[in-house]
Amino acid sequence: MELSFSRSKYSAVFSFWLLLLLASILLPKAQLQSSQDKGLCTLVVTYNTGEDRIRLDRVRFWLISERGDLHLYPQGNSYVDDPETSKRMVLIENLPEGAYTLKFIMPNSDGLFEKVEPRKVSLVQGGVVKVDQELKLLAKEIGSQPDVELAYESPYQREAPPMHEVRFYSQPFDSYAPQPGYLNIRSNVPAARWVLYKDGARIASGEGSVKDLTVPAGSGYQLTAEELENYEVKLLPQTPFSVQPNQTQSLEIFYKRILGVVQVMTDMPTGDALNIQIEGSALKQPLRVTQVARSNKIEWTSPGIPLGNYVISFKPPSFYEEITPVKFSLKQGQNALIRPKLRGGGKILVITNTSDATFTLKQTNGPLSLEGSGDQYRFEGLLPGNYTLTFSSKDPTRYIPPKSLYISLSRFRKHEETVEGEYTFAGMLKITGNIARFSVKLEPKSGNFDTIREEVTDYSKSIPLPEGNWKVIFTPIGRTGAGTPLPAKEIYIDAFATESITPVFEEKVEKQEPAVSVTETPRKTIDELYKDLIFVPAGLSIFGDPYRKDTENTFPAQVVELSTFEISKYEVTNGQFCDWLNIALQEGSIRPKDNQRGVFTNVKGNVVFRTMEANADSQISFRPTQDKVKPFMVLPGFDNYPVIHVTWIGAQEFCNTFGLRLPTEAEWERAASVRGGNNVSEIKKWIYGFSKDVINRSLANYKSNPGTSAFHRVATTPVGFYNGVNTIPLSPEDLIPKKTEDAKSPIGAYDMSGNVFEWVQDWYFDSPSLLHLEKNPLGPLSGSLKVAKGGCYDSLADGVRSFERIALAPEHSDSFTGFRVARTTN
C-alpha cells in the first residue's frame, strides 16, 4: 500500500484503511476495535468544500437513526483533516445496526453551495461503512464574513467557538416528525445575536438574518434576542411556536431605537432669536435650530434623538451675555428640560447721596422689575430697551427721594449707564387741626422744590418736607361757611427734626350741638392688660348666626356651653405691643428676617410682625441706631390705637409671654353679643358687638357708605373710643362732630364690632359639624387658616356683625387686623 502526499485525488493515493489507521493514532477516543468483537457498527464520513476549505469549519451534519434519535457531528475536535486533499474525516463508532440518514447543514443563505440532499446509510452488525460527500460551490465567495454566524456556545460570543455536540433528549419516534422543518430568521440589526430554544434546551444561536435553518419539527420553540443598549426589541412570534415538517416558518427580530427629546424653555423678549446646537456621539452631525421668541418666551422641543451624553450650547444676540454650554444625558424613560438663564449685557450704575436710598428699576415694555438700595448699586444683566428708575427711602421721614429717571439701553453695544439720584434731607411737619377735614398747601420759600398739596381727613397728619422755609396755607373742606380760611403761616423745617403746627378754624355754628373734645387718655401699659380683663361667668351661649339673612361668612347658630373665662375690655394697643417687641428682641425670642427689612420672626422663622420699614401703613418703626435698648417706636400720637400688621403667630407669642391666650371663637362671640344664662330661655344674642341690632357711626368704627373706600389710609380709632365721651362726624360732610354712644358689649368690652379684625384661637372651618367638643367648642384640631372676627374700619355694616368671620393665614398681616387677649380661670 502506497502513501503519497501529492495533490492527486484522494481516492488514488490515500486509501480508506490508511485513514482509519491515522484516525486510530490521532483520535484518542476513536481507537478502532474489532467490530466483530462488539457486534456494533462503525461509520466514517468524509467531506470537503474545495481546495480553499471555504467555510469548512462551519459545516455540520445530523445523523438520524430510524428511531428518530439525532446527533450533531463533528463533536468537539473529533475529526481529522488531510492537508493535501482539504478533506475532513469524522469517525463514528459503536453504532447499532440499522438504517440512518445523514443531513448536512452549512451556512448557505447566500447560495454559495449546491443544495445537498440527505444521504441514506445502512449499517450491518460488525460492519464499517464509509460515506464521502463533496460540497460543491456554485459561486465564488464574496467577502470573508458570512451574513449569519452560527454558534453553539454563548450566543453573544464574537469569535467562532470550538465545535461540540448539541444533544437533544431522546424521544420516541412518534414524538417527532420524520422530516425536519425550516426557519427563516430576519433581523434588522445584522450584528444582533439570537438564541433558539426548544422546550428550554438551546438548539442554535447566531447573529443577524439566516435563511433555511434546519431544525427538528415539533412544538415548544422560542426565540430570544440580544438586548442592545438604547434599543427596544420586538420578537414575532412572541409566544412559543411549533415547526411543521417540511415547512418553512419566518421569525422576525425587530430593533427599534429608543429616542428622547430635549426641551428648552426660557424668558426672552419677543422677536429676539436664540441659536441652539446639540452635539453628541450618538448624532452623526450636530442638531442646529434657531428659535424666535414669542410672547416673551422661548419654548422648543427637539425631534427624537438617541439616548446618550450630549452638550447643548446657546448663542443669543450680541447684546446678551455668553451662555455656558450645558452637559446632559438622555436616559431611557427620561427627557431633558433645560432652562438657560439669558442675561443682557447692559448695566446701570446708580449713585445716591445716602445709604438709606432704595430704588426700583422697571422695564417699560417687559416683566422685569429689580430692587436696589444704598449709595452705590449696579443693576446687571439688562437687555436693551427702556427702563424707569423710581426712587424711595428706607426712612421717608428723613429723606425725600428725587424724581423718577428714564433710561434707554442700546441694542447695538454692551455698555453701562451711570445715573445719579440726589436725596433731599427732610424734616417732619405735624399738623393738627380742630376740624376733621381741611386742605394744606405748602409752598417752598427757597430751593428748587415743588408746591405740595395734602388733605387732612382725620384731624391730624404728618408730612415729610425738605429742609428749608415753607409757606403753609390751610383751607377747610365742606359746605360754604362751615369754616373760615386761616392766614398763611411760615415755618422752617430742620432736617431730621419734627415741627408742629396747629391751625384753629373759627367755625360758624347756628343751632348746632356744641362739639365735645376728645378725652385724652394716658398710654396703656402691659400691666393694664391684666387690669382690663373682664370675668365672664359659665353658662349657655349662642354660637353662630341665629338670623340667617346674609350667610356668606357665617354658619347656623347652635347652643353651646362655656366655662368661665376672662377677656380684655380693649384691643391690644400699639404701645403695649411695642413694649413686648422691645422685650422679645432683648430676650432673643424674635429677630429680624434676613433680606426683608422691617419683617420680624420668632426663633422658628415664622413671621410675627411687620414694621413701617416693611409696610408704610404699620404704626411701629424699628430704629436701632436711635435707641439700642428700645429700638421699636410707635408713631407719635398712635400709642393707644390698636396694633396692626401683627400675624396670628405674633399675637400668640405676645400672649404666651404674659401667661395669656387668644379667645376661642365661641368665647369671642359670647363676649361680643350674647347675654348668657343657665337655660335656653335666658340667653339672647344681638347682631352687633354693642348690645344692639342696629348700627351707625356713633356706635362703631366701620364704613357706613358703600361708595367710599378707606384703602388709601389707615382709619383706626383709639381703643375704647366709642365711650359716650369722644366725638366724631357721623358722615364725611359733617363739620360738627357728634358725641359717640357708650358702645359696650353685654359683658362691657369695647370695639367688638369694627375698628380692627381680631385674631381668635381657632383653625378655620366652614361647617359646624367640624366643631370639636360641645362644651367649650374649638374649631378643627389642625388646618391652614385661622379665624378673625369683628370686622374693621373698612367693613360695611354686615361685615361687623358678631357672627361674621373671615379666614387668614397664620403668617398674614395687614392694616385691618389686630387682637385682644383672654385668660383661662380656675
From TrEMBL:
Keyword Nucleotide-binding among record annotations: no
Molecular-function annotations in GO: formylglycine-generating oxidase activity; protein serine kinase activity; protein serine/threonine kinase activity
Catalysed reaction, written as an equation: L-threonyl-[protein] + ATP = O-phospho-L-threonyl-[protein] + ADP + H(+); L-seryl-[protein] + ATP = O-phospho-L-seryl-[protein] + ADP + H(+)
Protein name: non-specific serine/threonine protein kinase
Keyword Transferase: yes
Enzyme Commission code(s) on record: 2.7.11.1
Annotated Sulfatase-modifying factor enzyme-like domain residues: 531-726, 744-823
Entry keyword set: Kinase, Transferase
